[in-house]
Task: inverse folding
């Protein structure tokens, strides 16, 4: 996130109104809901986790134990079990 001077982007009347509330302060303005990306969408992490989970389920179905999977993927036993049960 980068700093933007309100004087450069806001109409003068709106800038004066905002200054009544936040003169010289920093303010975060969130994105509109429709322009927000889902978690992991931009970075590709969502897809990586999905593929990892499919692999975990596949390994479990072919005989890997929950404890083997916890060691291999550095996840808790509860996390592995959730992945396995959601993959059924």
Result:
């Amino acid at each position: 996130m980068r700093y933007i001077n309100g004087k450069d982007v806001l109409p003068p009347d709106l800038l004066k109104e905002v200054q009544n509330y936040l003169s010289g302060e920093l303010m975060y303005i969130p994105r509109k809901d429709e322009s927000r990306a889902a978690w992991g969408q931009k970075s590709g992490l969502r897809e990586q986790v999905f593929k990892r989970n499919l692999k975990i389920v596949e390994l479990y179905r072919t005989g890997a134990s929950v404890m083997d999977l916890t060691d291999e993927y550095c996840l808790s036993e509860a996390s592995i079990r959730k992945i396995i049960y959601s993959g059924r």
Observations:
- The chain has a mean pLDDT of 90.
- DSSP finds five helices and no strands in the chain.
- The two ends are 40 Å apart (CA to CA).
